[in-house]
Amino acid sequence: MYNKITIIGNLTRDIELRYTAGGTAVASCGIATTRKFKAQDGTQKEDVTFVDITFFGRTGEVANQYLKKGSKLLVEGRLKLDTWEDKNGGGKRSKHSISVENMVMMDNKSNNGETNQSPNQGYQQPQQQTQSTDSGYKNYQAPQQPQQQMPQIDIDEDSIPF
Fold first, then answer.
1. 142: CATH
2. Which of 28, 124, 125, 162 could form a disulfide with 101 if both were Cys (CB 3.0 to 4.6 A apart)?
C-alpha cells in the first residue's frame, strides 16, 4: 500500500528534541494549516487543522536547530494513527499524526530581520536500516544529500479559489 502525505503550515509550538537509548534523535511538534473559503451565505470562513508531526534522526536535529513556533514548513511523510487508553476514564483515544520523511523550510527571514541560515532548504530523511532498536525506533544511516530545491512560487494565498 502507498501512504504519503504532504502538508504546508506553521509550527504550533517549539520543537521538543529527545534521544532514544540508542542515540537516535526524536523531535516532535505540531503543524497547523488553514483553509479559507466562502460559505453559502457569502461570508468568509476559515478552517484550521492541527496535526502532530514527528521527525527522526538527523532530520529532527536539523528541525530543532532551525525551526521554532510559527515557522512555515512543508513536510512529506507517512500518515499514522496513534491509539492509547485514556488514563482517567479508561476509554480508547486516537489521533492522526505524521512521521516526517522530508521537509522544506519555507521562511525567508528570521524574526530579527536577518536572512535565515538555510532558507528554503529541503532536507530528506536518511534511509532506514531494517533492524530496529529495543525502544521501537528505527536506526538510520548517515544523511544523504538534500533533494533539489522546490521552485519558489509567488502566489497571493487570498487569490487561490480553494
1. 2.40.50.140
2. 125
Name the residue with cell 492522526. 96
CA distance 88 to 95: 17
Instruction: Indicate the Cα dihedral angle 31, 35, 36, 37, nearest 10°.
Output: -160
Global pTM reads 0.63
Neighbours of 62 (CB within 10 A): 20
Q: Which residues of the chain have pLDDT under 70?
A: 109-162
| Overall number of domains in the chain | 1
Q: CA triplet 133, 125, 59: central angle to 5 degrees?
A: 85
In whole angstroms, what is the distance from residue 89 CA to residue 160 CA?
A: 44
Q: What SS3 class is residue 115?
A: strand
